[in-house]
Amino acid sequence: MATRRRRFTAELEREAVQMVLSGQHGLAEVARDLDLRPDMLRRWRHRFLEDPQQAFPGNGRMKPDDEELRQLRREVRRLREERAILKKALAIFSEIPR
Q: Taking the model in full, what pTM does it have?
């Protein structure tokens, strides 16, 4: 049975990083307390230190490149579905009646 990826809210990610950056708790300790993998918390911290405003965009505020990529993927999916429907319609209408 496949395991599903856990999803974390931007608020949890931000709080976890703040706990590490405050210096009161070590990275491994915070990861253990929140049942996270230390490498994931390290990645969150790195993203936060690079760009605090865009570190945890969540669903509401994505980076412009990510937003464009999401829209383009949605459009590609829609166009593929449309093409499949048109192929089926062509096959149906091109049958020779007997």
A: 0.54
